[in-house]
Amino acid sequence: MNQRNRCVEYDMGDRAAAESTRKAALSLAQESGNTEIAGWAHEMRAWFALTTGDYRGILAASQAGTEAAPSHGVAVQLAAQEAKGWARLGDRRQTEVALDRGRKLLEGMPYPENLDHHFVVDPAKFDFYAMDCYRLLGEDRFAENLAHEVIRAGTDFDGSERSPMRMAEARITLGVVAARQGDLDQAVNYGEWALKGDRQSLPSLLMVSRELAAIVNRAFAAEPTGREYLDHLTTLSRTN
């Protein structure tokens, strides 16, 4: 059973198929005693919960996965997902606890041989997770610095983007920071730039874009630039 199928199905908008595949993978993992696959199945459930706004569900899935696979690489990503859940619930202390646990786990693991493999933890990705958390907690300086680092690490020597989804979310993070600082043009430029990539996980991208949209709607809804951005997101949401 190909675990990547679950991501593809979910990105394509077929949530029922993705959940069915995830449950089948979890069942097979439990029957065969493969704790790593079980951990990834729980991690996918945490991601599904994240993109649907089920923040308590993120915590439950992350903690179940950590119990199933405490010493595998997936435990790092489970800690990051848990941190994202706590950040969305506004709990700064628990967010930091989860991030710290993930960092310590990551430091104790060998560097992956194949970073292109979907189910290995890229050490550079932890900055991406922390960026998400600090943006949600309103820690703009930390979020902005991490966003620039995510973009730097994801850009190849020839200017091509190795990690387009991470970079898209980093640009939205920079847009959120700009919007909080009152710079609508910069905020929308970053927001629209993030939506232009060819390789997109729209559930994740729309989720983060809505954070920027909320600020634009609150502070700049009367501005034509703000209205155009909000209308663009509404159209994307309806078609996905």
The counted number of beta strands is 0
Following the backbone from N to C, one meets helices and strands in this order, namely HHHHHHHHHHHH
Q: How does the overall form come out from the CA principal axes?
A: globular
Largest β-sheet summary: none
Strand content: under 5%
The Cα radius of gyration reads 18 Å
How far the N terminus sits from the C terminus, by CA atoms, comes to 26 Å
Task: Summarize the structure in words.
The chain is built from 12 helices and no strands. The protein has helices at 4-11, 15-32, 35-51, 55-68, 74-88, 92-107, 125-136, 140-154, 164-180, 184-194, 202-220, 224-239. The protein is globular and about 55 Å long.
